[in-house]
């Protein structure tokens, strides 16, 4: 028993399996699944119409219950990828082999679908049943949308009603075909489709909507309608393309095998004027074959016709000029033989049945398609006689393995394909090269931009520095002045309150003072004079300066200086005179500076120059008294009061400057200071030595560099040797500090603590 | 019924624009290889002899608009392959041809001898109203004549064909052959012998007249849910 059941099942399986390929169906399989003795229909899921309707109602209710809105939509969704692959294949014809492979794939797919549609008894096949539900089948919105879009692009001038009519027609057309596909034979269906075409034609001729449309546009509209209707139907399995009930597929296979067998047929057998050695000839043949292969991927009859037309154009070019049908047909036969287009018979039958007959009968596409039909039927019926060759030879060729025959042409074509590929590669390489070139260009541009940017930034930084550094300079020079002032005045609080402009004045006066009036600084000078010798530059300058000083000294009376200061000219005069005066005392200062920061000497000097200028410029107001006083030393009491205000502000700055220049001086001078001020001894020595040389030199270096340039320009306007003069001025202060070291010391401590005065100093610089 | 329809069409035709054609006639040119089918076609469509302009390609499908009795008619002429071995497969050419130009070479008797088989094919493969026109080509080569005019004329008369000797090279009688055929076809349309609605008739009617609305009511709705 057990065995028997097994046997039965296996038998059933075998039966089923054997049935599959032959597509032959047992009569019982055709009966309604409900067993109501009526015949079922695969489109009705194996039910008879009555049972199917009941089933549908049930299903619809169930669907409603489950509220599945996309019940009718699965079809388009499923179709999309399919079409995508088709178009992908459509776009690349570079390889025949690939094409054929894909074709065989689609064949297999189609065969599968066919099997399903025939054998499916279960309701597992969703898309099929949704598509075949006759009463509620709906043309997917995709078709409608696609038509709308296409219509707008192709017939922008036509009105909305024509668009609507076309869509309505396509809709009804598809519905009609879907409905009839299962009950009619292919020929009947073809006739029906042709009648539908004619009806639309007539509708266009008679309808008011198309009154303004000329006949050419009507033809285009006809093509448009046909295209969209057939585009959809084409992809449905076994409806219009190799429909069930025909042996199109078998013929396809037979034709493919036949063509393979005939691969040995060459151009001489067909007496066509083809030259394999000609590159142009090969290229044309290659193109023609590509188009022919592309026919299968077009899904509307019009699209297929277009392919055929293009193919034949190439073939005509292949034949050379002047070409006639006597040349075209053999060449086309040859092309078909070499191309071995997939599903050739199915395609031809599809076009013949469902293309608008009018178009097929007339028009270029129809003409070439007819030629193709002739070529195919020639190949089908090819005999020894039709090739004008001996029967024996023919049989010999036919018995030959298919792979041997067309090797020459196959080689030529593969060569062609390879060359084409190479060409494509070359183009791609060129594109890449161009890209690379563009890239490098842009990189260069970017580099240039970066450099430009850097320069701009640098310039801006310089500008900013040029403006800001001024603050720093005054600090150094001022300290000396302040110290001197402080030395004189002592009160720190007062100094802060005092306006900056006053300071420079004091400085100048003080400078002059030590030189002339005090013996102590002169002593310092003598001490410091030795180091000055070490520095060549300063020495030379000194000489020249000393000369000038002598001259100026003679020229400078205190009274005259007072007058000059008020006017511009006076300023210059004072500058000249003052430096000279200072120079005497200056030597003392210079000596200390070189050992500390020999490299920065020039820069520091320059800075001092600029600062000195600034100092000088603001000074004019309080200047006269100082100069006179410095020279004469008579003014001291009166001016001290006025001076005292100014120095207070600059105290802190002075400290820094001191550190720079007068390490030695300070040391030398310290002892006296210590005696005077209780604060000074520790503060001076400690603060001065470490501070002076390092921080100024290192920290301000950069700033100073740029600064100096700008300041120089300003100074230059005044004079070339101003720098030195200034330096001298500055230096002279140091001696003063020594004098007032006690005060300076006090100031030193505050300087470290508070850099506040520095901001004030710029004001002084601004004034000039 | 037909007469009424025709008069109606006539009206439309009369008002059609100058560049619009009312009909499309399909011709086929048949005959042995080398009788000059393509040359005749080229001479007719381009008014040139093919040998003069060798660069011309694709002449086998020619169209030209002619005027017959005030009607613009577009002729679509299909050249066919004449080789004997293709005879069996070229039947689809004949489908829907309104006119058939049967060509032989007056300098080659064999081409004349094949006429009967060509005629048989044509008769078998076209509809009865198809107009068949016999053309003896290469009339400019009178010195090498192999077939006399009288002989061919007699053959034509016996088979009810129109006949003319023409030269594709000089253009002599070429125009006439095509025009006469068109006239004959048009005549048969007028007579109602040719059914315009049949796809096989080889004639397409283009009743559209731009800017002229038709009095006819709109056709039955296409969106009927049949």
UniProtKB/TrEMBL annotation, chain A:
SMART domains per the UniProt record, alphabetical: VPS9 (SM00167), ZnF_A20 (SM00259)
Alphabetical list of Gene3D superfamilies matching this protein: 1.10.246.120, 1.20.5.4770, VPS9 domain
Region called Disordered, residue ranges: 59-100, 521-540, 662-692, 712-768
Segments forming domain A20-type: 26-60
Compositionally skewed regions (Basic and acidic residues) per UniProt: 76-85, 670-688, 725-740
Keywords associated with the record: Metal-binding, Zinc, Zinc-finger
Domain of life of the organism encoding this protein: Eukaryota
Keyword Metal-binding on entry: yes
Domain named VPS9: residues: 249-388
Comp. bias intervals (Polar residues): 522-532
Name this polypeptide is given: Rab5 GDP/GTP exchange factor
Organism: Chilo suppressalis
Lineage: Eukaryota, Metazoa, Ecdysozoa, Arthropoda, Hexapoda
From TrEMBL, chain B:
Membrane topology summary: Lipid-anchor
Chain segments carrying region Disordered: 203-226
Biased composition (Low complexity): 207-220
Keyword RNA-binding: no
Top EC category: hydrolase
InterPro entries: P-loop_NTPase, Rab14, Rab_GTPases_membrane_traffic, Small_GTP-bd, Small_GTPase
Top-level taxon: Eukaryota
Enzyme Commission designation: 3.6.5.2
Compartment annotation: Early endosome membrane; Golgi apparatus, trans-Golgi network membrane
PROSITE patterns assigned to the protein according to its UniProt record, in alphabetical order: RAB, RAS, RHO
Catalytic activity: GTP + H2O = GDP + phosphate + H(+)
Pfam families named among the record's database cross-references: Ras
UniProt keywords, alphabetically: Endosome, GTP-binding, Hydrolase, Lipoprotein, Membrane, Methylation, Nucleotide-binding, Prenylation
Family the UniProt entry places it in: Belongs to the small GTPase superfamily. Rab family.
Official protein name in the record: Ras-related protein Rab-14
Taxonomy of the source species: Eukaryota, Metazoa, Ecdysozoa, Arthropoda, Hexapoda
């Amino acid at each position: 028993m057990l065995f028997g059941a097994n046997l039965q099942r296996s038998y059933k399986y075998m039966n089923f399996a054997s049935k599959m390929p032959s597509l032959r169906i047992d009569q019982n399989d055709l009966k309604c699944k409900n067993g109501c003795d009526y015949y079922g229909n695969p489109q009705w899921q194996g039910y008879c119409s009555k049972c199917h309707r009941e089933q549908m109602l049930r299903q619809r209710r169930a669907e409603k219950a489950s509220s599945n809105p996309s019940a009718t939509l699965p079809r388009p969704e499923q179709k999309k990828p399919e079409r995508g692959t088709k178009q992908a294949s459509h776009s690349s014809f570079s390889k025949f082999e690939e094409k054929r492979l894909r074709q065989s794939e689609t064949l297999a797919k189609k065969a599968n679908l066919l099997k399903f549609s025939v054998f499916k008894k279960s309701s597992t096949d969703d898309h099929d049943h949704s598509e075949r539900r006759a009463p509620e089948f709906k043309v997917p919105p995709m078709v409608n949308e696609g038509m709308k879009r296409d219509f707008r692009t192709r017939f922008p001038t036509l009105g909305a009603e024509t668009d609507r009519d076309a869509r309505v027609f396509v809709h009804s057309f598809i519905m009609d075909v879907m409905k009839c596909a299962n009950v009619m034979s292919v020929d009947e269906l073809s006739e029906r489709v042709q009648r539908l075409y004619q009806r639309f034609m007539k509708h266009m001729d008679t309808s008011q909507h198309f009154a303004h449309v000329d006949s050419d546009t009507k033809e285009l509209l006809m093509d448009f309608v046909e295209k969209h209707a057939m585009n959809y139907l084409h992809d449905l399995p076994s409806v219009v393309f190799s429909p069930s009930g025909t042996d199109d597929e078998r013929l396809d296979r037979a034709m493919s095998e036949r063509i393979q067998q005939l691969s040995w047929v060459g151009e001489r057998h067909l007496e066509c004027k083809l030259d394999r050695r000609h590159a142009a000839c090969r290229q044309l043949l290659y193109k023609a074959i590509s188009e022919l292969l592309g026919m299968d991927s077009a899904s509307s009859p019009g699209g297929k016709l277009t392919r055929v037309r293009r193919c034949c154009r190439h073939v005509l070019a292949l034949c050379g000029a002047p070409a006639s049908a006597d040349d075209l047909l053999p060449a086309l036969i040859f092309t078909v033989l070499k191309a071995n287009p997939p599903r050739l018979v199915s395609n031809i039958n599809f076009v013949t049945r469902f293309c608008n007959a009018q178009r097929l009968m007339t028009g270029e596409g129809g003409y070439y398609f007819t030629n193709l039909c002739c070529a195919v039927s020639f190949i089908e019926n090819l005999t020894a006689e039709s090739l004008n060759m001996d029967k024996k030879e023919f049989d010999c060729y036919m018995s030959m393995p298919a792979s041997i025959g067309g090797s020459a042409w196959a080689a030529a074509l593969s060569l062609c394909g390879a060359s084409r590929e190479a060409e494509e590669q070359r183009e791609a390489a060129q594109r890449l090269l161009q890209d690379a070139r563009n890239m490098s260009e842009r990189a260069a541009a970017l580099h240039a931009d970066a450099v430009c940017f850097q320069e701009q930034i640098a310039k801006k930084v310089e500008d900013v520095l040029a403006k800001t550094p001024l603050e720093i300079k005054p600090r150094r020079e001022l300290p000396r002045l302040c110290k001197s002032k402080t030395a004189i005045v002592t009160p720190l609080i007062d100094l802060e309150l005092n306006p900056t402009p006053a300071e420079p004045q004091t400085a100048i006066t003080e400078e002059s003072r030590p030189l002339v009036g005090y013996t102590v600084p002169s002593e310092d000078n003598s001490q410091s004079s030795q180091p000055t010798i070490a520095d060549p530059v300063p020495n030379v300058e000194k000489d020249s300066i000393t000369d000038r000083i002598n001259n100026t000294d003679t020229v400078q009376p205190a009274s005259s200086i007072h007058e000059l200061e008020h006017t511009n000219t006076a300023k210059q005069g004072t500058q000249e005179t003052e430096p000279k005066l200072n120079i005497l005392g200056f030597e003392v200062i210079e000596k200390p500076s070189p050992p500390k920061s020999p490299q920065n000497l020039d820069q520091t000097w320059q800075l001092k120059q600029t600062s000195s200028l600034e100092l000088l410029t603001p000074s004019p107001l309080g200047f006269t008294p100082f100069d006179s006083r410095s020279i004469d030393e008579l003014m001291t009491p009166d001016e001290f009061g006025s001076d005292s205000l100014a120095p207070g502000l600059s105290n802190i700055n002075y400290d820094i400057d001191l550190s720079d220049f007068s390490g030695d001086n300070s040391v030398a001078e310290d002892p006296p200071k210590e005696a005077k001020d209780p604060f000074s001894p520790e503060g001076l020595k400690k603060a001065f030595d470490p501070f002076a040389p390092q921080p100024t030199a290192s920290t301000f270096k950069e700033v100073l560099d740029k600064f100096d340039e700008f300041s120089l320009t300003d100074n230059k306007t005044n004079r070339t040797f101003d720098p030195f003069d200034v330096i001298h001025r500055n230096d002279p202060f140091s001696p003063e500090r020594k004098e007032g070291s006690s005060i300076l010391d006090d100031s030193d401590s505050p300087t470290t603590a508070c850099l506040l005065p520095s901001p004030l100093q710029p004001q002084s610089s601004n004034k000039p | 019924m037909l007469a009424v329809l025709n008069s109606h069409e006539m009206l439309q035709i009369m008002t059609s624009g100058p560049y619009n054609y009312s009909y499309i006639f399909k011709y086929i040119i048949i005959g042995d290889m080398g009788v000059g089918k393509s040359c005749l076609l080229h001479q007719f469509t381009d008014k040139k002899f093919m040998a003069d302009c060798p660069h011309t390609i694709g002449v086998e499908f020619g169209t030209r608009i002619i005027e017959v009795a005030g009607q613009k008619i577009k002729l679509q002429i299909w050249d066919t392959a004449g080789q004997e071995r293709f005879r069996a497969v070229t039947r689809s050419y004949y489908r829907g041809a309104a006119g058939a130009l049967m060509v032989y070479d007056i300098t080659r008797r064999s081409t004349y001898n094949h006429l009967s088989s060509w005629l048989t094919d044509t008769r078998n493969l076209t509809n009865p109203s198809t107009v068949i026109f016999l053309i003896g080509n290469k009339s400019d080569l009178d010195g090498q004549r192999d077939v006399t005019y009288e002989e061919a004329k007699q053959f034509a008369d016996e088979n009810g064909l129109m006949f003319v000797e023409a030269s594709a090279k000089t253009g002599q009688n070429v125009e006439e052959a095509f025009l006469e055929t068109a006239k004959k076809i048009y005549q048969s349309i007028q007579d109602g012998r040719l059914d315009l609605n049949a796809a096989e008739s080889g004639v397409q009617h283009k009743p559209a007249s731009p800017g002229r609305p038709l009095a006819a009511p709109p056709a039955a709705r296409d969106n009927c849910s049949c």
